[in-house]
């Protein structure tokens, strides 16, 4: 386990190499203030103030070098503007010249993430430490980096080692560490109480049996918040089997569960004053003689009957039972996370989760949280005009739309049927994966929408330290 707390330290004047930040607007003025040797060196290496470009500035002796790097705006640092340096610089301590890193602390630490659990020989470098005088920012930033790393670790782990039982074990670790109460429903009780979760997962091997995992935490009189995660540990597509190309990344189909668990841990560890209910619908969508079939009709926990039009539209089935359970305790807010539709990726690409919400103010707050944390989302329409695409001849609704169009919208509309009408609800259709690396964001499992949701929850519920006027 990486110790991210080693990567940020309070600035007490200790020895550290200097990082100079420049942008295109101020580069010429900065350059004229450097000595002749530094100017000659930058000219020799062809330094230009372009994005993510850096250069080493020689010092009076070999150990006294510094760094110059380009950012978009030296007065408004993004979460990722120092990520490349955090990834490639030698181990040691560093200090920004004349300013505090602010949001860039996150990218600096995130860049030092690695997943080497399956490597016979890990390439381990010592930490690159960034100093800051903003001591109050250290612990919250470390907590967010750990949460994002947890999502990455869980998603990156192969399905053979991250089945429903392993997801349960992770939930148990979190609940035990934070004083939450863990409840797990499986077997006959799952079949009777959560028939759609059971149906999706019943074809899996016994050691990957489906289950509903719940954590309850917080004071009874605090506002009730439910976090729901899709935990499909591997999605073969079921009898509507995926092609090999579509199945290759399906270990990540529990990415929604990873987001919900990581966010739940943030809520509990911070002591956010809410009554938290985290629900993970964990199952493997496997193929066997006992697999659920196209044309089957399944009665949901809510009582609505669902005709199966496609066994590869299984995520909404397990989420629906979990959402129904969450609604029974009458929370004021439900957030669900799911790697739900390829349609969302077609519309928005891999980096931008689709956000659906039944309340404009809630959607605005989530989007604002994404802007604040550099964790963007895009709101999609929860348009009831497409609800007829879920109609079926023999059941209350179908699990697959009757049209190839608007796939992410019809999936969200399906989920909406299982959310109490008077409960605030937001649905995150996230990819949980990065197909190519960017500074601070390695290829593989990715937390997309996690910090946006966390910022919204903090703004909504954490009144500690605020004045009465605020």
UniProtKB/TrEMBL annotation:
CDD domains: Peptidase_M17 (cd00433). PANTHER family: LEUCINE AMINOPEPTIDASE-RELATED (PTHR11963), PEPTIDASE B (PTHR11963:SF20). GO terms for biological process: proteolysis. Gene3D superfamilies: Leucine Aminopeptidase, subunit E, domain 1 (3.40.220.10), Zn peptidases (3.40.630.10). This is Aminopeptidase. It holds the Pfam family Peptidase_M17. Keywords: Aminopeptidase, Hydrolase, Manganese, Protease. GO terms for molecular function: manganese ion binding; metalloaminopeptidase activity. It comes from Sphingopyxis witflariensis. Residues 310-317 form the Cytosol aminopeptidase domain. GO terms for cellular component: cytoplasm. Belongs to the peptidase M17 family. It comes from the Bacteria.
């Amino acid at each position: 386990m990486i110790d991210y707390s080693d990567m940020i330290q309070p600035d007490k004047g200790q020895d550290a190499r200097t990082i100079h930040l420049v942008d295109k607007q101020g580069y010429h003025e900065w350059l004229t203030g450097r000595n002749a040797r530094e100017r000659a060196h930058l000219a020799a290496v062809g330094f230009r103030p372009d994005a993510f470009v850096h250069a080493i500035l020689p010092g009076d002796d070999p150990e006294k070098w510094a760094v110059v790097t380009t950012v978009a705006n030296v007065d408004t640092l993004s979460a990722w503007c120092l990520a490349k340096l955090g990834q490639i610089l030698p181990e040691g301590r560093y200090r920004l010249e004349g300013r505090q890193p602010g949001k860039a602390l996150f990218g600096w630490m995130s860049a030092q993430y690695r997943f080497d659990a399956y490597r016979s020989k890990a390439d381990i470098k010592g930490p690159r430490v960034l100093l800051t005088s903003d001591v109050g920012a250290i612990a919250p930033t470390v907590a967010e980096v750990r949460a994002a790393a947890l999502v990455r670790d869980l998603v990156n782990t192969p399905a053979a080692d991250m089945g429903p039982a392993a997801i349960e074990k992770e939930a148990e670790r979190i609940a035990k560490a934070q004083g939450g109460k863990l409840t797990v429903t499986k077997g006959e009780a799952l079949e009777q109480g959560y028939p759609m979760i059971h149906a999706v997962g019943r074809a899996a091997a016994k050691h990957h049996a489906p289950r509903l995992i719940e954590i309850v935490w917080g004071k009874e009189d605090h506002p009730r918040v439910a976090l729901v995660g899709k935990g499909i540990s591997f999605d073969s597509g079921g009898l509507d089997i995926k092609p090999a190309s579509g199945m290759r990344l399906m270990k990540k189909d529990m990415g929604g569960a990873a987001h919900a668990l990581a966010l739940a841990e943030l809520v509990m560890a911070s002591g956010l004053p809410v009554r938290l209910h985290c629900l993970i619908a964990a199952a493997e969508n496997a193929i066997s003689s006992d697999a659920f079939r196209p044309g089957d009709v399944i009665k949901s926990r809510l009582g609505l009957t669902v005709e199966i039009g496609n066994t590869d539209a299984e995520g909404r089935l397990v989420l629906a039972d979990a959402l129904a359970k969450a609604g029974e305790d009458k929370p004021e807010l439900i957030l669900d996370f799911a790697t739900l539709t390829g349609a969302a990726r077609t519309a928005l690409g891999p980096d931008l989760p689709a956000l659906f919400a039944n309340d404009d103010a809630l959607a605005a707050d989530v989007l604002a949280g994404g802007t604040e944390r550099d964790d963007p989302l895009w709101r999609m329409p929860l348009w009831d005009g497409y609800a007829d695409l879920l109609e079926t001849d023999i059941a209350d609704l179908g699990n697959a739309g009757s049209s190839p169009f608007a796939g992410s919208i019809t999936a969200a509309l399906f989920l909406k049927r299982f959310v109490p009408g008077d409960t605030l609800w937001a649905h995150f259709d996230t990819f949980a994966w990065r197909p190519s690396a960017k500074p601070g964001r390695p290829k593989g499992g990715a937390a997309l929408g996690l910090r946006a949701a966390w910022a919204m929850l903090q703004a909504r519920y954490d009144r500690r330290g605020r004045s009465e006027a605020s």
